[in-house]
């Protein structure tokens, strides 16, 4: 695949969800979602306790995020599968945590800076299972629930809105990372939360108000920046979010705040878990004291172990690899993206204002 699929989605959340199927790739989407759920069932991941938790999560999101659930229903209708299967798929990381964190399949390195030659940037490498490699999409969303004007999201075809990262027309950008944790509760799953932040909030300050006002399922982090240069790193703990505002925002696949560091699970033998601290240390040393533009950000995200750390990952024995890299520009809302490893894949530009 030479680039990410480019989608223009408009209308209600449900209509935008259904419209994804117009891009095709039906069998690839089914393999990347239904196939992973079937494997989880075969592994015994979805037991009685998991089903109880999923029911509680479904009821919570139906009340807290009807737009997100409508989008999920639309996606399922478009691709012809049970929406509950997609809901389970979005929770697979959480369900693995509840079983002791058997595998951290969804990795990632993400950072944000508030100033530079190209203005504020949010940057991310997406490390995930290779079944999603051929269905990476850049989707422009516009509709009555997107009160920020429009949003541009990088994710997987057949998944909701900001299923990885995104930016809106007001210049607020965000990206997530997965963290396997010891504790979960009923609350916002970040895949739904990220979409709602971009749909409703135009600044980091507005996003933090929303984040602090609601319970979180636990697991994962966000890095954010806006057009005014505000930045934040947020750890979405079940006990409550931990927020660090200003300056360089950076996260990989473990918690670093004193309040939540002990909640991190780092499964033995897991590729992503084993190098999360190495990637964090490398970026913590490489990023400060330099003025970052988009070209320099792209080069940094192509770093391999011989260059200091496995920021760009491919060829792992467990099938996890860097399937996309993104550089968001907040001042003139847009995205540079490659749908593959940033060391060897072509990059394309997507202007949200065009």
Quick gist of this model?
This protein is of the alpha+beta class and 354 residues long. It has helices at 13-19, 26-42, 48-64, 66-79, 83-90, 92-98, 190-200, 204-212, 271-286, 294-300, and strands at 5-10, 109-113, 121-129, 136-142, 151-156, 165-168, 173-177, 221-225, 231-235, 242-245, 249-251, 320-329, 334-338, 347-351.
Give structural notes.
There is one protein chain. This protein is of the alpha+beta class. It contains ten helices and 14 strands. It has helices spanning 13-19, 26-42, 48-64, 66-79, 83-90, 92-98, 190-200, 204-212, 271-286, 294-300; strands at residues 5-10, 109-113, 121-129, 136-142, 151-156, 165-168, 173-177, 221-225, 231-235, 242-245, 249-251, 320-329, 334-338, 347-351. The strands form two sheets. It has an eight-stranded mixed beta sheet, covered by helices on one side. Strands 11-2-3-12-13-14 form a six-stranded antiparallel beta sheet. Strand 4 and strand 5 form a beta hairpin. Helix 2 (26-42) crosses helix 5 (83-90). It is globular and about 50 Å long. 55% of the residues are buried.
Rg measurement, Å: 18 Å
Number of helices: 10
Strand fraction band? 15-25%
Structural class: alpha+beta
Low-confidence stretches: none
* Strand adjacency order, main sheet: 1-4-5-6-7-8-9-10
The description of the largest β-sheet is: 8 strands, mixed
Mean pLDDT: 91
Shape: globular
Topology, number of strands: 14
Order of helices and strands: EHHHHHHEEEEEEHHEEEEHHEEE
Structure keywords:
354 residues, 14 strands, alpha+beta, 10 helices, six-stranded antiparallel β-sheet, eight-stranded mixed β-sheet, globular
């Amino acid at each position: 695949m030479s680039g990410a699929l480019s989608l223009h989605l408009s209308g209600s959340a449900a209509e935008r969800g259904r419209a994804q199927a117009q891009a095709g790739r039906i069998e690839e989407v089914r393999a990347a979602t239904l196939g992973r759920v079937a494997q989880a069932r075969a592994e015994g991941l979805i037991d009685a306790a998991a089903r109880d938790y999923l029911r509680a999560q479904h009821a919570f999101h139906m009340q807290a995020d009807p737009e997100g659930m409508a989008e999920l229903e639309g996606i399922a209708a478009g691709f012809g599968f049970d929406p509950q299967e997609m809901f389970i798929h979005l929770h697979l990381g959480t369900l693995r945590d509840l079983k002791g964190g058997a595998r951290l399949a969804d990795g990632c390195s993400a950072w944000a800076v508030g100033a530079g030659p190209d203005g504020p940037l949010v940057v991310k490498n997406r490390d995930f299972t290779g079944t999603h490699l051929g269905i990476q999409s850049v989707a422009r969303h516009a509709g009555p629930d997107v009160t920020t004007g429009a949003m541009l999201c990088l994710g997987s075809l057949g998944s909701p809105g900001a299923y990885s990262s995104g930016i809106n027309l007001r210049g607020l950008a965000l990206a997530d990372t997965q963290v396997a944790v010891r504790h979960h509760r009923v609350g916002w799953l970040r895949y739904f939360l990220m979409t709602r932040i971009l749909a409703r909030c135009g600044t980091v300050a507005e996003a933090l108000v929303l984040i602090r006002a609601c319970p979180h399922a636990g697991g994962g982090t966000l890095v954010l920046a806006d057009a005014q240069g505000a930045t934040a790193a947020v750890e979405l703990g079940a006990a409550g979010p931990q927020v660090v505002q200003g300056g360089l925002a950076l996260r990989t696949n473990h918690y670093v705040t004193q309040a939540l560091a002990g909640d991190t699970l780092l499964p033995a033998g897991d590729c992503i878990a084993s190098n999360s601290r190495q990637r964090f240390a490398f970026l913590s040393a490489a990023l400060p004291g330099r003025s970052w533009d988009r070209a320099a950000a792209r080069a940094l995200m192509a770093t391999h172990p011989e260059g200091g750390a496995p920021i760009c990952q491919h060829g792992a024995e467990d099938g996890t690899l860097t399937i996309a890299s993104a550089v968001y520009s907040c001042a003139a809302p847009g995205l540079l993206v490659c749908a593959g490893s940033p060391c060897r894949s072509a990059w394309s530009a997507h202007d949200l204002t065009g």
